[in-house]
Automatic annotation (TrEMBL):
Top-level lineage group: Bacteria
Section covered of the full-length record: 377 to 670 of 727
Protein source organism: Spirosoma liriopis
Localization annotation: Cell membrane; Endomembrane system
Protein name: Heavy metal translocating P-type ATPase
Family assignment from sequence similarity: Belongs to the cation transport ATPase (P-type) (TC 3.A.3) family. Type IB subfamily.
Amino acid sequence: ATPTAIMVGVGKGAENNILIKDAESLELGYRVNAVVLDKTGTITEGKPVVTDLHWLVSEGEQNRLASILYALEGQSEHPLANAVTEYLKRSDVSSVAINRFESVTGHGVTAEYERETYVIGNRQLIDRQGVSLHEDVEKQVDGLYKSAKTVVFFANQRQLLAVIAIADPVKATSRQAVETLQRRGITVYMLTGDNTQTAAAVASQVGIPQYRAEVLPADKAAFVQELQAQGNVVAMVGDGINDSQALAQADVSIAMGKGSDIAMDVAKMTLITSDLTSVPKALQLSRKTVQTIR
Ligand code: ADP
Ligand code: MG
């Protein structure tokens, strides 16, 4: 496109809350035929809130364990950890001094307290500890998944201590944004580090048949690359540190406003609003910019 067309495009973007850092995106955007969306914070609000905390231990033990849980999540920077500490704060839980805190990327966190190891995180993390779920708990967890909740597990080496359900509602405009893209013949994918059942529930709420769950950050980038290898022009939309590799890999990278600074640094376009309908708008803008010069 001519410099003038590009300037007009960048200006139109700004009017529509789309910051375009790199003119190349404007020239590529109209060719995009695959859009990859991150789930948490991109399709959903990204403000997770604990809705249920089910203890699997006697009432007498709960206070002490709640303090350990509070200490563990207090050291984690994950948005889910924040949801848990906010929830515990409301019942005046105090913290304890834990040792050997470790964060297990894409799975959760672990630490020691009084010679016991504690973990809080996804199903794989407690599976690895060799902790199994009672049939009743399994059923309860399935119900939570169906309501699109993220479920995290708190355990020591011997047993499951608590199950925590966390809700992160889908943004009001996400479904519409997905439909608009699909109507234009673009295939929309959803990627998430969250578990398969929760991913399925969210994907169905917004009308995305193609999704992948339990995806680690490097695998998000590998997925984008896979689509490119099949001849697709790929736009990646994300908000988190764990999306930055995939954003860097994509042909067109779009960071959600209010996301992490790293995502915004890497991405060539940033949406100032957190409204997902800006994504089809941004791609449409590219079409118009390129058509102007033809
Ligand atoms: P997402 O794409 O959903 O942001 P992540 O890769 O960051 O995924 O995390 C994947 C999963 O790991 C979460 O859904 C959660 O089950 C678990 N997890 C990670 N960190 C924590 C934590 N601090 N507390 C509880 N669970 C966690
Ligand atoms: Mg995210």
